[in-house]
Structures are given as structure tokens and as C-alpha cells.
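Example 631.
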Amino acid sequence: MTYQTEYKAWKDAPEAYWMKQAEAIDWVSPPSKALFDEGAPLYEWFADAQVNTCWNAVDRHANGARATQAAIIYDSPVTGQKTTITYAELRDRCALMGGALKRQGVEPGDRVIIYMPMVPEALVAMLACARIGAVHSVVFGGFAAHELAVRIDDATPKAIIAGSCGIEPGRTVEYKPLLDDAIEQAAHKPEFCVILQRSHCEATLIPGRDHEWYDFIEGAELVDCLPVSGNHPAYILYTSGTTGAPKGVVRHTAGHLVALNWTMKNVYGVDPGEVFWAASDVGWVVGHSYICYGPLIHGNTTVLFEGKPVGTPDAGTFWRVMSEHKVASFFTAPTAFRAVKQQDPKGDLVKNYDLSHLRYVYLAGERADPDTIHWLQDMLGKPVLDHWWQTETGYAIVCNPVGIEQLPVKVGSPTVPMPGYDVQILGEDGTPLPAGDLGAIAIKLPLPPGTLPTLWNAEERFIKSYLATFPGYYETGDAGYIDEDGYLYIMARTDDVINVAGHRLSTGAIEEALAGHPDVAECAVIGVADELKGQLPLGLLCLNAGVNRPEGEIIAECVKRVREQIGPVAAFKLATVVQRLPKTRSGKILRGIMVKIADDQPYKAPATIDDPAILAEIKEALQSMGYAGKA
Ligand code: COA
Ligand code: AMP
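Predicted structure in complex with coenzyme A:
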């Protein structure tokens, strides 16, 4: 089998192709057909099937040959804990938590927000929701109360499951005060909360609303998996868009099962029974697809790592975990390896570990810089494979499909489109561009199974954000080109989304937080290049007339505001005061040009610029912060 024949097999008969892949899933009642296109340009896959995600991810393995196989290896250098949970144990834990949620009134379709650190209970909570047909929405622990409140109001959960704290190197982050604050801020109030008390910090519970995890599950019935329809939402995951309001990406049950199962062998090259590790967080899509669902659906062992690439305790942690747990395929963001490389440039720590089980290393979430790829290749002598995807798609759009055929690596390209994805480069007027030309990266509709069918409670926004610019296509928000061999290159975002340490952030959301400062009249946030994190947000602030407080004080207050409203994950520490912002005559702030100035790249002011002299002022302000080349 070659990549070309596999891709052609899909292109010639897409529905037959996906019906074939669907045979790997245990259906309560199989789908009558693959694609449901009656609502085009909105599409659904396997909509009329009956199926359960927890059954496919847990019970079918636990009840069969994998009962005693490790489902989850929890390795937590921040607490010193290491535990293995077998498939049989995981089934019982999910059944008990599912029973407890049901006993407390959670019904199929009810939303449950999960705000937890990287502990096994986070996966149990997700799978327990799936077991009873509840729709989970996991919120990353690095988000502050305001961001959590926004998600509570959008998802309107019946319940929230949280940990008492997360452990960051050098500090404990108490989640419970953030949760209480978020519920206070939100208009919607959950009926109850379940709190996992961790030994590092005991949260104060609110009587009548909060239940301690173990009290909550005590005496509950072990529930069976509830069949749901193929288009039942498995989860909602919020991601950043251009505006401050996050987008609730919906994932339907059946397509999610079929697609993720397909990727484990074809994209990641692992067979059932092998150990797979994605070093990410359950709060991100990588955590959903490749810490929780993908490996479990496929019968792999997943590693749940509560730590950082460096400092827990050192830059050898990744190698230690890979070696100790015999990891076959490993996946993380390039920024994590940049951190390792910074601390151990010669790779002395790699040599301490036996990495003979490791076959492939995968990178995604942000641009993989060639230096990091070359360094890793040299250190490991194994394939280092970049792949490109988004929260919206849930799995790789473009990758090197080692399970089908390992293609030559071209450093700088995530390789080629997967079956299901007809990727095209479009010009501004929507015409497909020839090889080598830079344009908007778009995917011909319908998107394949497992990708987002819509946004939660926001169908119009879904259409406007993704389908309206290029009719018949999904607009990815990325720009790039395809070379003569069909390899894709991702060059930039076409919107104001930035990528900080592999985390996708909205400059609009940061601007909203800054604009709320009483002294700030107007502001713009741009992403400037950073050696470690890829990009860092930088704020340009115009103050109200008559404000004569020290600028440093106002900047410090702005930094604090972003940390309190969005969270530490925004890593917002850079800001400066400017007199004016560059705009077009119609008032649009020219963020793209400011990014180019900051990164000392060539730029051309658009003909529509209101006053080109402002660009020189911006350059001077950025130079005083160490950006925009030398003064
Ligand atoms: N809960 C609470 N706070 C969190 C958090 C969480 N789950 N995750 C991160 N934070 C905090 C950090 O403590 C840090 O706070 P600080 O400003 O007080 O130092 C801040 O958010 C920024 O975190 P991070 O971006 O992780 O930066 P860092 O400097 O702590 O670490 C790296 C840098 C490169 C080691 C780190 O970004 C990393 O491991 N990245 C991997 C990327 C990744 O997993 N991406 C997911 C997509 S694949
Ligand atoms: P997220 O939804 O958080 O996964 O972010 C998706 C975005 O991250 C993409 O639209 C790209 O802008 C960027 N991204 C993800 N993977 C890659 C990659 N391999 N190379 C370049 N950019 C990437």
C-alpha cells in the first residue's frame, strides 16, 4: 500500500472508504450510510448509528483480551506518584462515576464542565460522561476565573467536576477559589460540583453545592454504557477565535470514534497494546484526542504525564518517561523540545536512557522550526515528524502517514494531506492557486468524520467563521503553499490568533482585558517572535487624554489584569504606551504590519493606511523594548 493509492481510494469513493474504516468500531446499531448531507453545507457522519464512546474506549477492551493491560500509566514527577490503571479497573471507575453522576440527576445531553489538572480522575470524568451520554467540556487549568465563567455561560453545565489544585513547578495553583469566582461571575449556575481533594491542598467545599469526589461516588451503582446516536455530541471544546468570545467546537460521537481509531496506526504507526504518549494537557485538543480517546479506542496504553519538559526535575524527564514506560510513539509541541534543547543543548541527558522502543516523534500545535527538528533528529536518530491540525479537526489534516507509507521528510513541511482532506491553496477571490503560490489554506467540503460539524449554540457563527469566505470550502485560518510534490507548508495565520508555547490565544481576548483598564483608551495586541515559546503577546496601549500617572504603573496593572482575566497561560508580560495606532482609513488596526515591524521583517504599508508616519513611531516604541531590529 502506498500513500498515493490510499489517498486515491478515499478520493474515488469517500463514503465507501469511511464505511470500511467504521468496521473497526463496536456499534450497538451500525450506520445505514456514512455521510448525511441533507443540511449542506453542514454535514454529519454516521448520524443514524447507535454507539457509545466509553464502550469502545474502555469496556470492549476490558471485557476482552485487554482486561489486565495498562490503559493509563500516570506518571507525575510533580507529586512523585506513578500508578497504572488496567482496562478492567478503568471500566469499573468509569461505571461508578457514571452511576454517581446519574444518581445526582445528570441526563444524556446535559453538559458537565471538567476543570482538572493532569490526574487520572480527569480521564475518568471524561469517560464517565461519555458512558452516560453527558457532554463534557474540559477547561484548561491555566485559564483564570473569567475565562471559565465565559465557558460556563456558553455551555450551561448541570455540573462541574474540578480538582482542588494543579501543581506547577514551584507553586500550587488552587483551582477551587477560581471555580467559586467563575460561578459567581457567570449568569448560569451549575446544580452541583464534584471536587477531587488533592493532598497538596484541601479546598473548602460549599455545603449543598459541592461534593467531595469519593463521597460522591460512594455507594453509586455501576452503570452500563448508554447507546447514543452517531451525531450525539461527545464533547464541546472551546478554542480561541478572532474575537474575545471563545468558539465551542462540537465533536460528534461516531465520526470521532472512527477517525481517531484510524489515526493510531495510519498516522502514529502504533499497534494495539503498544504505549503511546502525548505530552500535552487534557484541556487542549491534543489531550482529548491523544491522551484520552485515540489511544484507548485503539487498545493502546496511554501515558498521563503531570509535569513539564524541564524543571520536573530536569531536561531528561521526557527521556526517562519514554524509556521507563517503553513508549513507541511520542507527541508534543515543538516549544517543549526548545525548552529541553535550551537546558541540555548537547543532549547529555538523552544518553542516560534506553530509547529502543521509541519509533517516532511527532510535533504539532505550532510551527516546527528546522533547528529544533534537526537537533532532535541528531539526538535520537529517529524520525521526527511534523504534522498539522487544529482543535476544529480533532486530528491531523496533513502528516507523514507512517502506517501507510513513510514518506521522505522535508523539514519545514508537515508533509501531505490525509484521506478525507482535499487541501487547496486559494487566492483572495477563491480561485485555486498553482503549486508554489502562497494563499489561504482551505479544505474542500465536506470535512471528514470526526471534524467539527458546527459550533455549540452558534451555527451562524460557524458558517460565518469557516464557510462563508470560500463557498464550498472550510477556511482553516492558516496561509501557506503546496510544492510540486504535494507537500504543504504552513506560513502564517490569516487572522489575529497567536500561538504561545503551542497554546492558541486570541489577541482579541487579551485586548478586551486591556481595554477594560480605566486609563486605556485604545489598544492592540500582536504576537512577536520568541525563541522559546514561538510567539509572545505584546500590547500597545494608547492612554486616555489627561492621564498623567507613571506609565510603568499602568503597564503593571495591565499585565495583572490579563493574568487575572485570561490566566497565566496567556504569558502576557510585554506592553508599552504609544501615542497612536496605525490604522486603515476605515479604522482597521494594522496588526499584521506591526508584527512584521516587531520581527524586523520587510513590510509594505497598504495604500489604505491613514497616516504612514505612525509606523515609525511604533518601530521606535518596539525598538525600546528590544524588538524591531536595532535603533
Ligand atoms: N494550571 C495553572 N497554571 C498553568 C497551567 C495549568 N495547567 N499550565 C501553565 N500554567 C502557567 C504556568 O505556571 C506559567 O505561569 P507563570 O507565568 O507564573 O510562570 C504560565 O501558565 C505560562 O505557562 P507555560 O506556557 O507552560 O510556560 P512555562 O514558562 O511555564 O513553560 C514550556 C514553558 C515550554 C516548558 C511549556 O510551555 C511547555 O511545556 N509547553 C508544552 C506545550 C504543550 O503542551 N502544548 C499543548 C499543545 S500540544
Ligand atoms: P489548535 O487549535 O490549538 O491546535 O491550533 C491550531 C493552529 O495551530 C493551526 O491553525 C496553526 O495555525 C497552528 N499549527 C498547528 N500545527 C501546526 C504545524 N504543524 N505547523 C504550523 N502551525 C501549526
